[in-house]
Amino acid sequence: MDIPSIPLGYWIESSLTWLTSEYSLITRAISRVTQTGIGGLNDGLMWLPPWALLAIIALLCWKAASPRLAIGAAAGMALIWNLGLWDPMIETLTLVVIATLVAVVMAIPVGIAAALSQRLYRVIMPILDFMQTMPAFVYLIPAIPFFGIGSVSAIFATVIFSMPPAIRFTTLGIRQVPVELIEAADAYGATRSQKLFKVQLPLSLPTVMAGINQTIMLALSMVVIAAMIGADGLGSEVWRAIQRLRPGDGFEAGIAVVILAMVLDRLTQSFSKSRR
């Protein structure tokens, strides 16, 4: 006896077609705004001479962390400059910064709401499990019909892929605030918003920063993958090296990605430690 298969793929494809046709004006407006932001930030970073931006990054690492990190960041960035990958690195940094900002702005309110509402927590956790276990390449599929080929689609896919850690860590940080402190705030007559902004969020900030750190790392990995749909940057250099069978060029771009990831990771970790 043959059991008919469920046309799940057809339903998903039909839904995407309907969404792209019904909300094309909204997606075009989002695409224009996002492209303007990408172009503005990228042009601003490109306007700075490489040595000036390198000095700014080293100084930031010095102030936020330690002289050792500043020296390492300066050496790593100088190597990227020497390899001729400075412009692709700037393009990758632009995409990571914008995607991270959008993901964090969307994730933190959701995480706060999930921490304060048990019902929402039970609803959102399975959704986050689904988002984190879905293969990264799948997020590129709906990005193309919504925003077309290019950096905007990369931002869309990156935001969806990198949001779950920020939501999870925000929820976890607020839920880990000691009950005694909440009771003390209640005893002093604090309102719900006062408890949130003066007790729960300040105490959970190190955990929230750890979630932002993970979001940055996932955004960087997804931006590299998004080179398959036309995103510029170091990912496109890796993809071009694969297509042309140039392993040396591919490893150079990969090393540049590792350097950028290490600098961003150490910076966000230092911010988290200083807050703690």
Uncertain residue segments: none
- Please compute the radius of gyration using only Cα atoms: 21 Å
Q: Largest beta sheet, briefly? A: none
Alpha-carbon distance between the termini?
A: 63 Å
Overall SS class:
mainly alpha
Total number of helices: 12
Order of helices and strands: HHHHHHHHHHHH
Average predicted local confidence, pLDDT: 85
Helix content: over 70%
Coarse shape: globular
Let me know the number of strands: 0
Estimated share of beta-strand residues: under 5%
Task: Provide a brief overview of the structure.
The protein has 276 residues and is mainly α. It has helices at 8-22, 24-47, 50-64, 67-82, 86-116, 118-133, 140-147, 151-175, 179-187, 192-225, 234-243, 247-275.
Q: Would you spell out the secondary-structure blueprint of this structure?
A:
Elements: H1 8-22, H2 24-47, H3 50-64, H4 67-82, H5 86-116, H6 118-133, H7 140-147, H8 151-175, H9 179-187, H10 192-225, H11 234-243, H12 247-275
Helix pairs in contact: 2-5, 2-8, 3-4, 4-12, 5-6, 5-8, 5-10, 5-11, 6-8, 7-8, 8-10, 10-12, 11-12
